[in-house]
Amino acid sequence: MRLDADNIEDFALGCAILSAGGGGDTAIGLAMARHAIESHGPVDVVAVADLGPDALVMPCGLIGSPTVAQERIWSGVEGGRLASAVARLHGAPVDVLMCYEIAGANGLLPVLWAARLGTPLLDADGMGRAFPEMQQQTMHVAGVAASPVVLTDGRDNDIVLHAADNPAAERLARSCTAALGGTCAGALYVMPGRVAQAAAITGSVSRAVAMGRAMRARRSGWPAALAEEAGGRVLIEGRIVELEWTGGAGFARGHAVVDGTLGRELRRLRLELQNEVLIALEDGEVIATVPDIIAVLGLVNGSPIGTERLQYGQRVGVVTLPAPEVWRSAEGLAVVGPRSFGYDLDYGGPGSAHAGP
């Protein structure tokens, strides 16, 4: 498989869906990835099963504010600076790049860097969706160390962090992003192929391409098409009648209320927002929760809508998709379940993607 001019838009749309409303805007990332492919050629995508046991895998992406990242045009040299620093630290060249987050802009920037470097991209990632913190990756659950973490602003300012543990790496990296302009490129959880085969979520790139292709082939009925393609459920189709944001703890927090229908039934759905859409409630009853993916689609064109682009009066469809299996385990839920985001809730609900009919 390759990412090229014929499927990069499919991939970008799949990344936007998997973002659950977070991960940064894909528009600029898509433009840069497309330009890199046109200038340097397609990006080969390597299956995890085909990795050599000692191949050096570099998970990478953006760290910091998605809003700041939307206002920045990346030069493309960031990937080379990360790869050079990682090679020095590990005493071997980087063999393959990996999206640490197959969502939003973080799914697309590694494509830009892989094209410029002539390095393949692994068909895998560390989240299967978007999460706000670096320890919320399957590599952390598998016991892989995030350190040493390499950060760069692409302007000859590089930082290498050696942290006591992965949560400490997250805190230190967030602090450093302020000095690097509020957002930066980062490489972390660097690992050999034999570790990636057990620690990463496999098939992420091909899954995003297939999801985007299925959606772009439709001219209407996008929520139902997405649910069918990804094994999820439509929760509601309607209009945003309430939208409120509050500050706190470095993340955008708020809620949205959607009035609409499911089939012939009138519904009212409340979405709890914290960078991503994390919880869906109907009449006070929890019907879907993180780590399942809760995607909001515009009913005009089927495009996913990031949480920061939600607006009063928008016509939307809300779909929940099942999280990767690792996140539904006890170990995974301890890292990315509702309680890890401050909600006194258990995972699931009768309308969640994993629930029975």
TrEMBL record:
Domain S-Me-THD N-terminal as annotated: residue spans: 7-162
Domain S-Me-THD-like C-terminal: 165-347
Record-linked Pfam families: S-Me-THD_C, S-Me-THD_N
Alphabetical list of InterPro entries matching this protein: S-Me-THD-like_C, S-Me-THD_C_sf, S-Me-THD_N, S-Me-THD_N_sf
Name used for this protein in its record: DUF917 domain-containing protein
